[in-house]
Amino acid sequence: MRSPLVAGNWKMNLTSAEGEALVTEILHLAGENFKIDVVICPSFLAIPKIADVCRRSRIKLGAQNCFWVDKGAFTGQVSPTQLAEFHVDYCIVGHSETRGKFGKLEIPESTVGLFSESDETINLKLKALFYQGVTPILCVGETLAEREAGQTDSVIEAQLRGALVGIEPAEMYGLVVAYEPVWAIGTGQVCDAAEAERVCGMIRGCLGQIADDETSENIRILYGGSVKSDNAAELFRMPNIDGGLVGGASMVAKDFYQIIVAAE
Ligand code: 13P
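A: This is the predicted complex of the input protein with 1,3-dihydroxyacetonephosphate.
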């Protein structure tokens, strides 16, 4: 039986102090009694402060990215070992924004390639995180152009296969996958619940082929992309959607709390 999970991805928002105030407010609303797994993914710089707040609660801590090597001459990178020092339990990998695909482009088109991750680097990151005991939240999803070209399923299948090369089912067992259609991220244009369920079911089927049925039944699949307090319940009611990866609405205490309640 998969337990629901709701993760808040703050992206490049909030200072440590603002983050601390937000988590304190969420805990105040929830009375610290979550029946599900709740994860907060602050910026790297806010992790120490939020780790302190989370340690006194049931909220788990996540990072938004990492490098795959333990240490060395990799300027500007953060390793899974460094995340583990702050008791980071989860790490987002392969978010469309780190793959270099933005739902709502606010940066010069010519700089997009600078962010891009490949399936190979995502695969290396997953292996490094599993080795360190940090649970990856692997993001997959199609752009609008790919959807309109009828390539949604094939794009996602290729992303899954590329990310999971050489990873044993036993390791994959605890994986979390997030289906995030790029066109739904930050746009207010949520994916229709029936279609999100269809894609998440397809993802589960694909994981069954890559690993095995028992493993795929254990893997939690989240939906992400304009999840709000008023659409969360309909999405989370779907059998293959085990929770949400929430951006904007995770930074408003009341909204995030209502999304948690919807998942419960
Ligand atoms: P929004 O909820 O702001 O659309 O962001 C979704 C997302 O990218 C979470 O990782």
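The first strand starts at residue 5 and ends at 9. The radius of gyration is 17 Å.
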